[in-house]
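Morning run. Coffee first, then this:
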Amino acid sequence: MLDYEQEAARYDATRGGTPRARAAAAAVLGLVPGEARTLLDAGCGTGLVTERYARPGLRVLGADRAAAMARMARARVGPGVVVADLRRLPFAAGSLDAVSTVWVLHLLPFAPRVIAECARVLRPGGVLVTTVDKDAGHDVGSDIDTLLGPFRRQEPYDAEEPLLRHAAAHGLRPAGETRFTGHGQGRAPRDLAARIAAGQFASALVLGEGDTDVLAGRLAALPDQDRPRPDPVYRLIALAKDPDRAPAPDSPTAAAR
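And here it is:
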């Protein structure tokens, strides 16, 4: 996984910037009930998406494990951004109306624990909005996708089917879905090869000894080395907490906010 402490300063510029953030925020808000009064962006990163959740009557909070990311998000969103492990959120059980996890779970082998923690902090009737099958969204049928196919992780951490099972075990049920475009995220062969060599796709690709070099060579043989292929399309699902779900106990670090 990337070192997000070091990645923070360049993160937005290499991830589609404002157009992608605007599309993501609009899609999330479309799945957040209008009566929601609190929304936690879990894994908020630099806050570029988080700040776009602002709407009348909605208090927006953020949490990220990387202090450098959280500092940038706090400058955009305000003091409601905290540094926290998503497996131990510093919020009381049943204290939040909505939680979002966008482009997060695909990075985490402990994604089921994050789902459980999001369910804990949601009030009965609250909603978790999350991306699923994120890396599959990049499969646009391009020549790059053909090369990556044999190396793709067969059981991604954010695969929808197991995610839904884990969610159901914590009283979260499907309540809607949507899609949005990852503007500026179309991949070009030369840049992708460099990012793979830097270890940026450890969660998406399974690369054995020598595979990185093999894949780099195949990418280098593709035409139009600096032409991005089509932008990905991501899926978001909403999971609503059962209205009669008994509150789970607070985690040791939880505190009402």
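The longest helix spans residues 17-29. Good start to the day.
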